């Protein structure tokens, strides 16, 4: 991890200098111009500086290479088989063909971006715990620490499902050799650490409803997802049920959802503004410009079919011509001003998590699974599904996830976790189900070992 830690530390120092010399991009969460990437011990001295550092971690989460619309999301969109590469940067195309290598530019940028979230969260957790009571209230200490634990757990969850075997570092990195000797942990070990962090956060966070900041309800949504990935179906059902029964969340109409921010559909979304823009609109092809990727014809046809897409047809339009084929434009992130939100957790996912968990748990509840599945279908105005065949219900849930999250980065990871990537996408080499560790880090860190097959 030598190269990684040097990179993080270098960026912290660089952003401090930049923050002193010029105004940086404003965070949506702050009214002042924050030094978003500062996580040094000298900065966190009281509640105000602790919150500024915490909001800096949110800002890293929002970066274009992570959840800002390109980078991590682009890799998942293209690997999932439903989107097309239509740009000029060849390293995007490797995700469609599953021929990515350790020198892939996108993977290198994403790896660094996610680990900056880890390091920023580690700094908040470490420093906030040490603050004297005269400089921070216990309620603030709990809330800031709880949010940081969840941010760290989200970063490690995404690292694990993308790269499988990654080093777990739980203290802030301040020097290149701070964690020499730290080996990679397995994917399941990383998921267990994610749950450990979430359990800590569960005891710290308030049970309020805030769609732009992490609360106890965010933890419930996240735990439901992690337990599903670990095939712990009773737990997945338990945590999804906490949100489904909460009147603050609701399956609203698709037209309302697409045209709203912070709606009752949303459990946790990242907010952007016209001065702090996301990369969604610019990374996807739009009416006036074909950028790096766009929806593919099979996805367009799926959503246009009344039996499968229903009201979700509004998500994609076709502006192809005889001269320009396969010109599909997504309409979930339609705001050309760049203030499109990123949806991290929403209530439809909780219904489909519970549906899958009820189908796959030791004592299946197929009636309950169908009720959850059909709640999502009914909202989309597609015909309800009826069957008593467990395998057919599982396939119907898989298909519904594809349509429901057509423009969100779930499909690739869903097919990998269920062992269906080979059948559905023709990716028969299971070594390609996780990405290669970036070459530069391997060269700089003797403790890192490349994933098998690269």
Automatic annotation (TrEMBL):
Protein location: Cell outer membrane
Keywords, in A-Z order: Cell outer membrane, Membrane, Signal
Domain of life from the UniProt record: Bacteria
Annotated RagB/SusD domain residues: 334-419
InterPro entries reported for this sequence: SusD-like_N, SusD_RagB_dom, TPR-like_helical_dom_sf
Domain SusD-like N-terminal span(s) in chain numbering: 29-228
Primary subcellular site in the record, as a coarse category: membrane
GO cellular component terms, semicolon-separated: cell outer membrane
Signal among keywords: yes
Pfam short name (any one): SusD_RagB
Coiled coil: none
Family stated for the protein in its record: Belongs to the SusD family.
Record's protein name: SusD family protein
């Amino acid at each position: 991890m030598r190269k990684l830690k040097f990179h993080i530390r270098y960026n912290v120092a660089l952003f401090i200098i930049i923050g002193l010399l010029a105004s940086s991009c404003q965070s949506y969460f702050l009214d002042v111009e924050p030094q978003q990437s500062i996580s040094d011990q000298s900065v966190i001295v009281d509640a105000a500086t602790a919150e500024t550092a915490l909001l800096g971690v949110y800002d890293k989460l929002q970066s274009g290479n992570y959840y800002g619309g390109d980078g991590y999301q682009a890799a998942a969109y293209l690997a999932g088989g439903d989107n097309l590469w239509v740009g000029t940067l060849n390293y995007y195309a490797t995700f469609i063909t599953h021929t990515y290598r350790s020198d892939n530019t996108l993977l290198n940028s994403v790896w660094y971006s996610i680990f900056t979230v880890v390091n920023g969260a580690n700094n908040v957790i470490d420093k906030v715990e040490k603050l004297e009571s005269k400089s921070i209230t216990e309620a603030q200490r709990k809330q800031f620490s709880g949010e940081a634990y969840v941010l760290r757990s989200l970063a490690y969850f995404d690292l694990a499902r993308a790269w499988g075997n990654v080093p777990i570092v739980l203290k802030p990195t301040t020097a290149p050799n701070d964690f020499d000797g730290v080996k990679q942990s397995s994917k399941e070990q990383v998921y267990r650490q994610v749950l450990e962090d979430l359990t800590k956060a569960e005891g710290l966070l308030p049970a309020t409803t805030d769609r732009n900041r992490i609360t106890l309800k965010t933890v419930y949504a996240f735990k439901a997802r992690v337990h599903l990935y670990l095939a712990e179906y009773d737990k997945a059902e338990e945590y999804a049920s906490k949100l489904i029964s909460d009147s603050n969340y609701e399956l609203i109409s698709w037209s309302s959802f697409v045209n709203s921010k912070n709606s009752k559909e949303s459990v946790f979304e990242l907010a952007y503004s016209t001065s702090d823009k996301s990369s969604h609109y610019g990374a996807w092809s739009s009416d006036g410009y074909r950028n790096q990727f766009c929806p593919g014809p099979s996805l367009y046809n799926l959503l246009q079919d009344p039996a499968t897409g229903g009201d979700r047809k509004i998500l994609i339009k076709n502006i192809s011509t005889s001269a320009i084929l396969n010109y599909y434009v997504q309409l979930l992130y339609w705001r050309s001003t760049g203030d499109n939100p990123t949806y991290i957790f929403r209530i439809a996912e909780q219904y489909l998590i519970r549906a899958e968990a009820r189908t796959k748990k030791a004592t299946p509840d197929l009636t309950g699974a169908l009720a959850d599945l059909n709640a999502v279908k009914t909202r989309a105005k597609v015909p309800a599904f009826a069957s008593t065949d467990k395998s057919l219900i599982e396939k119907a849930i898989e298909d519904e996830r594809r349509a429901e999250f057509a423009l969100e980065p779930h499909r690739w990871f869903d097919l990998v976790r269920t062992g269906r990537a080979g059948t559905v996408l023709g990716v028969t080499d299971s070594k390609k189900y996780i990405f290669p560790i970036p070459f530069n880090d391997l060269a700089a860190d003797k403790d890192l070992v490349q994933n098998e097959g690269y």
